[in-house]
Amino acid sequence: MTAPEQNSGRRVLTGLVTSDKMNKTVVVEVTRRVKHPKYRKYINRRKSFKAHDEENVFKAGDRVVIQESRPLSRSKRWIVVGKAEA
Predict the structure, then answer these.
(1) How far is CA 27 from CA 40, 42, 61, in A?
(2) pTM (predicted TM-score)
(3) Domain ranges within the chain, ordered by starting residue
(4) Protein fold of 3-83
(5) What is the 3-state secondary structure (H, E, C) of 1-30?
(6) Is 15 a residue whose pLDDT tops 80?
(7) What is the 8-class DSSP label of residue 74?
(8) pLDDT confidence of residue 85
(9) Which CA distances in Å does 61 have to 15, 18, 71, 74?
(10) How many CB atoms lie within 10 A of CB 23?
(11) 32-80 pLDDT, tens digit each
(12) Whole-Å CA distances, 62 to 15, 35, 55
């Protein structure tokens, strides 16, 4: 993963493609584990991002790496960098 490392200051996330029905856009769901402040139990937090996929390569179920970018549309601020390993 050399492309995200070159652009320092931009966030890089790994997530699962949940929808590929739009043209040149995929919806990526990123899951992170956080500890509950009161109960000290780990819980999963999910957030969805719309990411730019120029060649419509990625399909639902693929694990991908996305990188923050300039605004590409009203709701799209991420670019798919590539497939995540394992």
Answers:
(1) 31, 25, 11
(2) 0.86
(3) 3-83
(4) OB fold (Dihydrolipoamide Acetyltransferase, E2P) (2.40.50)
(5) CCHHHHCCCCCEEEEEEEEEEECCEEEEEE
(6) yes
(7) S
(8) 85
(9) 10, 6, 25, 25
(10) 7
(11) 999 999 999 999 999 999 999 999 999 999 999 999 999 999 999 999 9
(12) 8, 27, 15
Question: Residue 53 burial (CB < 10 Å; 0-12/13-18/19+)?
Answer: buried
Q: Which residues pair with 17 in a beta bridge?
A: 28
Tokens of 77: 């601020």
3-state DSSP helix/strand/coil % of the chain, to nearest 5: 5, 55, 40
33 contacts 43 by C-beta, under 8 angstroms: yes
Residue 86 has pLDDT above 80, yes or no: no
For residues 61 and 20, give the distance between their C-alpha atoms in angstroms, rounded to a whole number.
Answer: 10
Distance from CA of residue 43 to its chain's centroid?
Answer: 19
A 10 A CB-CB count for 10 gives 13
